[in-house]
Amino acid sequence: MPNTLTRSPARPVLDRLFAAAEHEEGQPSPWPAGRSFTDATAQERADLLDSVLMPVSAPGGTLLYTLVRACRPQTVVEFGTSYGISTIHLAAAVADNGTGHVISTELSATKVAAARENLAEAGLAGSATVLAGDALETLAGVPGPIGFVLLDGWKELCLPVLRLLEPRLTPGALVVADDTTFESMAPYLAYVRDPAHGYTTVDFPVADGMEISCRAG
Ligand SMILES: C[S@@+](CC[C@H](N)C(=O)[O-])C[C@H]1O[C@@H](n2cnc3c(N)ncnc32)[C@H](O)[C@@H]1O
């Protein structure tokens, strides 16, 4: 059955963005030689990498769409918009559910503007809001209950952002974190995999791995 993801105007926008992401894989990184990534602030990293899409994979995007269709959350929160590839998948799902809204957040002003344009071009501007700024500030005021979360910003911030949102998660909320194979995801993974913290969780083998955790407690 066709859905928003497979139809114009969203499909051509996703095809264009995925093609740009594939092209960038063969290109030299714009990160300055000799500059330490870990020593740079989140804002410095966001600005230095504002031309790089770094999106979820195509199957990862389809997984996000599918999970949001199944859960039918009223509020979806995303940490790390970039150019809006994952946001378009999430927004397509709430649009097709006929209910719900996506709130995403991004540090790079260049990317905020581009993501808003891409969502509008995909016909999904009414289903998603992109907040400009640091997730630890912008997401502090998002009202609950939150039924679905995608964590895809700088990896060492995934756990602080989860802890920030945790009191507003609805029972049964799904939290998806991208790139579980990255070493910097270790503290996050240790947290959600400790049963004392109230999640049932599984590492889903798509691209660089997505941890899918259900707020069960
Ligand atoms: C891997 S990319 C996100 C890719 C996006 N989810 C997609 O699939 O297209 C990570 C993004 O998180 C943003 N980011 C990192 N730390 C952030 C923070 N503290 N607040 C908001 N955005 C942040 C970066 O600027 C970067 O664009």
UniProtKB/TrEMBL annotation:
GO terms for biological process: methylation. The keyword Methyltransferase applies. One of its GO terms (molecular function) is O-methyltransferase activity. It holds the Pfam family Methyltransf_24. Keywords: Methyltransferase, S-adenosyl-L-methionine, Transferase. The keyword Transmembrane does not apply. It comes from the Bacteria. InterPro entries: SAM-dependent_MTases_sf (IPR029063), SAM_O-MeTrfase (IPR002935). This is O-methyltransferase. The lineage of its organism: Bacteria, Bacillati, Actinomycetota, Actinomycetes, Micromonosporales.
